[in-house]
Design goal:
The structure holds 2 protein chains of 2 kinds. By secondary structure, chain A is of the alpha+beta class. Chain A contains 11 helices and 12 strands. Chain A has a 5-stranded antiparallel β-sheet with strand order 2-1-5-4-3, with helices on both faces. By secondary structure, chain B is α/β, with parallel strands linked by helices. In chain B, 39% of the residues lie in helices and 16% in strands. Chain B has 6 helices and 5 strands, in the order βαβαβαβαβαα. In chain B, strands 2-1-3-4-5 form a 5-stranded parallel β-sheet, sandwiched between helices. The chains are: A alpha+beta, B alpha/beta. Chains A and B meet through helix 5 and helix 6 of A and helix 1 and helix 5 of B.
Chain lengths: 396, 156
């Protein structure tokens, strides 16, 4: 009698302890500022806490029996499954970070601690996972990496710029000082014959220096100050650009093929006109002795979404494939006989890149013409490229 | 010092016409008689050295005693020309003196890595400019002994 009484009391105490432990566990799981879930090896959820429901904006009823892999973007699923497959009685815990699909369709980041739950005999029962939303941190990290990369690119650009400028501005100075010294000497000796031509060299060198400085200023402005972006008909823009260089086109008798129905693009009208002006002028300048000089403009969708790929093809002298990179460099000139400081294509590249686009040139080599390709934001999606341009502008 | 009365042959690779004129005037005044062959780009420099195209005749295109090489050239750069000269067994013995406006570390390194024999930075000051070229003439055209066209005898 007494013994039975003892048993009942002990059991009641044990049950009370169990209930209390259950209460501790439930309140902990629900109040924890983390997502908690349990799932089977195929990913079927068997338990989720409130925060889990909140973050994925689904009810508990919807989630139980649901496969959580459906909440992960397909390219990341294998990575997560691989991590979970590694769990074993000897390695019961693994942590990893991966992308998730937010209810609004955006991509977020979560950090998870996955544990293999084992019963008292050490046999796997199911999996438990504790997760935190780290989207804000991850975005900050990605933004930081993007900024570092941008900064490094700018630094490299600046270094290249300083290098080129110091060389190109020093050159005319050597000329000026050299010929001024000869004039001084010749005057003292009373030899006047070559003074006029030496003076002319000095004047030209000073003019060239002035032109270099003007070009540099122009280039620096073109990359930094973009006007507010607008929708621009590409056809009209190219017509305007061609009109601005009509002198050169007429002088070389160049025929410009401009197809109808060119798409709308989105960006700084003045700068983009300058891009096409330079490309058309360039094509006309390097026609060589082509008896029937022509330029063809074409446009189609680029590989990158919301960008259009525009090509400017000519049947001029072409470019040795070895120099297709160098021609975009500051003050680089492949043909010393053709006028110019060598700023045009540098300027073009800078403007295109400021619009988030790319530019490159292809040529079969000398004598087979060349094709410049550039990608520019289309007017279809107005928000993304606009933000890019504006944020670019505000950083300076 | 050389006993020869033959003028020293200088191959000047320089695309800037004003700098070319300054270099030629200064070297023409040098006490060592010299003949300057001037080309304005890297391709022509290599054509000359390998006696191609218009430079095929050894009588009119003798092997130079020295190459004065600018680095900033249109198309084929000075460094590429230097590399070609120093890679080929027929030309690598020819002294190549880089004469440039660039004092950038990376150009110096790149030039010496490609076995430039000397590296000179054009001074902006004209007195120094002429002094540098006069010293260059003294050293490379007078004191320095080159193989010149006798190189063919020396090839193993």
């Amino acid at each position: 009698m007494y013994g039975l009484q003892m048993d009942v009391t002990a059991r009641k105490t044990m049950e009370a302890e169990l209930r209390r432990s259950e209460l501790y566990y439930r309140s902990l799981v629900n109040d924890l500022p983390a997502m908690v879930c349990r799932f089977q090896s195929d990913g079927t959820l068997t338990f989720v806490n409130d925060l889990y429901c909140q973050l994925f904006q689904r009810t508990r009823d919807e989630l139980i029996g649901f496969n959580f892999y459906d909440l992960i973007p397909p390219p990341q699923r294998a990575l997560v499954a691989e991590g979970i497959a590694k769990l074993s009685p000897t390695q019961p815990v693994i942590e990893h970070e991966h992308e998730v699909l937010h209810p609004d369709g955006s991509i977020g980041w979560q950090r998870w601690v996955n544990r293999l739950l084992l019963d008292e005999r050490g046999q796997p029962v199911e999996y438990q996972a504790l997760g935190m939303d780290i989207t804000a941190r991850k975005r900050a990290e990605l933004e930081r990496e993007r900024l570092i990369a941008e900064l490094e690119a700018r630094n490299a650009e600046l270094e290249q710029f300083t290098y080129t400028v110091s060389h190109d501005l020093k050159s005319p100075l050597i000329t000026i000082k050299g010929f001024a010294s000869y004039i001084e000497r010749d005057l003292a000796a009373g030899k006047l014959e070559r003074i006029p031509s030496d003076l002319q060299r000095i004047i030209s060198a000073a003019d060239r220096m002035y032109q270099l400085l003007e070009d540099l200023l122009h280039l620096s402005r073109a990359g930094r100050q973009l006007n507010p972006p607008e929708r621009i008909g590409l056809g009209l823009l190219i017509s305007e650009a061609a009109a601005a260089v009509s002198g050169r086109l007429a002088e070389r008798n160049v025929y410009l093929h401009l197809p109808p129905n060119l798409p709308e693009i989105y960006g700084d009208r003045t700068r983009l006109r300058e891009v096409f002006q330079n490309l058309i002028d360039n094509a006309a300048k390097f026609m060589g002795d082509q008896p029937n000089p022509q330029i063809w403009i074409e446009a189609r969708a680029a590989d990158e979404p919301h960008f259009v790929l525009v090509s400017v093809r000519d049947n001029g002298i072409g470019i040795d494939p070895r120099y297709t990179q160098r021609i975009f460099g500051l003050f680089e000139r492949l043909e010393q006989r053709v006028e110019g400081t060598g700023i045009g294509l540098t300027l073009v590249r800078r403007i295109v890149e400021a619009h988030g686009g790319k530019i490159w040139v292809e040529s079969e080599g000398l004598g087979s013409g060349s094709t410049f390709y550039l990608t520019l934001p289309t007017a279809l999606q107005t928000s993304a490229p606009a933000e890019r341009i504006n944020s670019h502008e505000s950083k300076h | 010092m050389k006993a020869s009365i033959e003028p020293a042959i200088i191959l000047l690779v320089e695309d800037n016409p004003d700098h070319t004129e300054l270099i030629i005037r200064t070297l023409n005044d040098h006490r060592i008689p010299n003949r300057i062959i001037h080309v304005t780009d890297g391709e022509s420099a290599l054509d000359y050295l390998w006696r191609r195209a218009q430079f095929a005749d050894p009588a009119t295109s003798p092997q130079p005693d020295i190459v004065l090489l600018d680095l900033q050239l249109p198309r084929l750069s000075g460094l590429e020309v230097l590399q070609e000269i120093k890679t080929r067994a027929e030309t690598r013995h020819i002294p190549v003196v880089v004469v440039t406006t660039s004092s950038a570390e990376r150009d110096l390194q790149a030039a010496y890595q490609r076995y430039a024999n000397s590296y000179l930075v054009k001074p902006v000051d004209f007195q120094q400019f002429t002094r540098m070229l006069n010293d260059l003439g003294d050293y490379w055209l007078d004191w320095n002994q080159t193989l010149g066209d006798r190189y063919s005898l020396a090839t193993p």
